[in-house]
Amino acid sequence: MTGTAYGHGLVLGKFYPPHAGHHHLVRTALERCARLTVLVCAATVESVPLADRVAWMREVHPDATVVGAVDDIPMDVHDPAVWDAHMAVFTAAVPGPVDAVFTSESYGDELARRFGAEPVCVDPERTAYPVSGTAVRKDPVGCWDFLAPPVRAALARRIVVVGAESTGTTTLALALADHYRRRGGVWAATRYVPEYGREYSEQKLAALRAADPRAQWEDVVFSTDDFPLIASVQNVREEAAARSGSPVLICDTDSFATTVWHERYVGGRNPLVEETADRTAHHLWLLTDHDGVAFEDDGLRDGEELRPWMTDRFRAELTRTGRRFIEITGTREQRLATAVEAVDAVLGAGWNFSPPLPENR
């Protein structure tokens, strides 16, 4: 720590959502305080949960004490009674006396006075990071470079390509990711998440061949316990990709698809796989049809005759669980064009943040 001037500092805000300007404010305060409390205040009408904002700020600033409070009082800096109501929320959440209040807002002096603390104004003109919560809510794509990894992961539109064996899922997923990268700018960072189940299958076959070089794919046996692991690792890898990618993430299968693959190789259902599949939110599934796609045996496939059944199972489970999906048919070029149109529609719908409570400044 360098330049410590205060014992206990405070940074207060909505962080709806947090962006680079917020992080600059917190880092500045950390440099000047022996300890720092960051108070995240959220209104119940807002569409990003308080718990998420607290978790994001804790991840980015592990050296600060990050606490949260629900504050459903509209702001009016000209009304002492409104100030009193807000301060009751603030003081109940902040541990102990405060020596300095760090803000970039015009109300910083009054907030500090009410805490009996010194006001410290940091970059009020937003010259270091020209961004605001309002700007992020209005245009997340335009503000993407100002967002930290956990916020990117939460906001990224996740597109999943699913389908039976040898129906062009990987081909489509790779082409889709390449399409968005070619748009340049923030889209150049578009990530592709490969299918972990295939990697896992390769490892199982390699382990058999280590003991018996004559082993073939039909000798590989799956148990129900394999599938929760496959689903969990798929989620972890997807989350990592979303943190470093663009506003769209292209996934070659997902943990939900693992429920159908469990039926394919083991039969029945595994509740743990289904629980794992529901932990991650996705925005669109692209179901590749088997019609018109030649079956290619690449050494890890043996279910050509099962492809119609698997297509039906994917369709039925996507429908039953209320997941948004479209079916992808036609030539390779037609499939990509259909997929791009559908993904663009998801992106064009925007992020639809709920408006915050009104403020009178």
What does this structure look like?
The chain has about 350 residues and is α/β, with parallel strands linked by helices. Helices cover about 45% and strands about 15% of the residues. It has 13 helices and twelve strands. It has helices at about 20-30, 50-60, 80-95, 110-115, 135-140, 150-155, 170-180, 195-210, 225-245, 255-265, 270-275, 305-320, 330-350, and strands at about 5-15, 35-40, 65-70, 75, 100-105, 120, 155-165, 190-195, 250, 285-290, 325-330, 360. A five-stranded parallel sheet has the order 3-2-1-5-6, sandwiched between helices. Strands 8-9-7-10-11 form a five-stranded parallel sheet, sandwiched between helices. It is elongated and about 75 Å long. It starts with 5 loop residues before the first strand and ends with a strand.
